[in-house]
Amino acid sequence: GPVPLQVDSSWRRERILHVPLCKEDCEEWWEDCKDFVTCKQDWHKGWNWATGTNRCPWGSMCRPFSEVFPQPRDLCEKIWSHSYKYTTERRGSGRCIQMWFDPALGNPNVAVAKYYAWRKRSSPAGVESVVPESDQALCALPWSVLVLLPLALVLLPEVTRGCGSRGWGSL
After folding, report:
1. What would be one Gene Ontology cellular-component term for the protein (predicted)?
2. What are phi and psi of 112, to 5 degrees?
3. Cross-strand bridge partners of residue 97
4. CA count, 13 A, side-chain hemisphere, 52
5. Would you state the pLDDT for residue 3?
6. Residue 5's pLDDT is what?
7. For residues 150 and 20, is the Cβ–Cβ distance under 8 A?
8. Consecutive sets of 10 residues in the chain, 171 residues long: mean pLDDT of each?
9. Which residue in 170, 2, 168, 169 sits closest to 85, CA to CA?
10. Measured between alpha carbons, how far is 96 from 20 in angstroms, rounded to an integer?
11. Are 39 and 67 in contact (CB under 8 A)?
């Protein structure tokens, strides 16, 4: 399930891992961006920061997303080092994070956060059956993080322009 992993890096102390994205959201994200270009598959690391902003690494070539990420699953899982997980769960299932929703109707991600928190508490070892990238300590992802996740995705640093109409203009 979605849990933050303790990390020791100069720019953060935690990262999310395997947050389940709703099938439609992942597929729409890929569809919106497939014709735009990127120079990297993993946006977590490896940027050229010589100018103070993230630039493509020296010698990298920009290619269409559809070449770098041939399927929606590739984009959703690889672009942020497996922070997100492609699922076959549908919007409204209470089992996946919905990136786009009408806030006037409530935030469906609250139910998702509660579901995974309950599941974690109910499992014999108190953890999901997800194998973390290291043996460092894990803790439950607060529901507030999941509630704010879609907003955080929109506010990420700019890498390319014009990717879709659903708030992904900074991807």
Report:
1. external side of plasma membrane
2. -65, -45
3. 21
4. 0
5. 59
6. 67
7. no
8. 65 81 96 96 92 93 96 96 94 92 92 86 61 36 46 42 42 38
9. 2
10. 5
11. no
Where b means 16+ CB within 10 Å and e means fewer, 118-154 reads eebeeeeeeebeeeeeeeeebebbebebbbebbeebe
Nearest to 75, CA basis, from 64, 59, 91? 64
pLDDT score of 37: 96
**Residue written as tokens 């991807």?**
171
CB 4 within 8 A of CB 16: yes
Please give the single-letter amino acid code of residue 168.
W
Q: What is the token pair recorded at 87?
A: 């699922």
Q: Which backbone phi and psi does 116 adopt, to 5 degrees?
A: -70, -35
Instruction: Decide: pTM greater than 0.85.
Output: no
The domain limits of the chain are 5-36+71-122
Dist CA 84 CA 56 (whole Å): 22
Does residue 67 come out as left (phi exceeding 0), alpha (psi in the -120 to 50 range) or beta? alpha
**What is d(CA 24, CA 72) in angstroms, rounded to the nearest whole number?**
10
Length of the chain: 171
Token pair in block for residue 15: 């990262």
Which residue type is seen at 111? A
